[in-house]
Structures are given as C-alpha cells and as structure tokens.
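Predict structure. Chain length: 78.
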Amino acid sequence: MPELPPVFADLQKRIADLMASTPAADFERHMREVLSMAFSRLELVSREEFDQQQQALLRARQKLSELEQRLSELEKKH
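Prediction complete.
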C-alpha cells in the first residue's frame, strides 16, 4: 500500500483516535471480552490440530480397510 501524504495520514490518525473514544469502541471491546470468555469455556481446537486429527483418522480408515480385505482373503482360504 502506498504511503499517504502527511495531510491524509494525519486525518486518518485523527479519525482513528476519534473512533477509539466512542461508545462503539467500548462496546466492541466489551463484546470481544464476552466472546473470548465464552470461547474459552468451549472445547475448541486449532485448525492445525483439527487437520492433524483428520489425517490420523484417514490413515486409520485406510488401515482398517486393508485389514478387512486381508481378513476376507484369509476367510476365503479356509
């Protein structure tokens, strides 16, 4: 992103400062705290952990399928 001219950069800073002191900013901070507390009570996992567990489950399903096939072949022989 190109750097803003000083006049616009100053205006942007003033608007950001003004927005930070409004009731909306207080409401946003409060909602973030409430949501953070609610999420901390849930048993959530990171996307990375979810992907790892999904891969482990896929490998387990593949192994189970292979074992079922081997069992079926052994049963046919007997």
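Summary: The CA atoms of residues 69 and 75 lie 10 Å apart.
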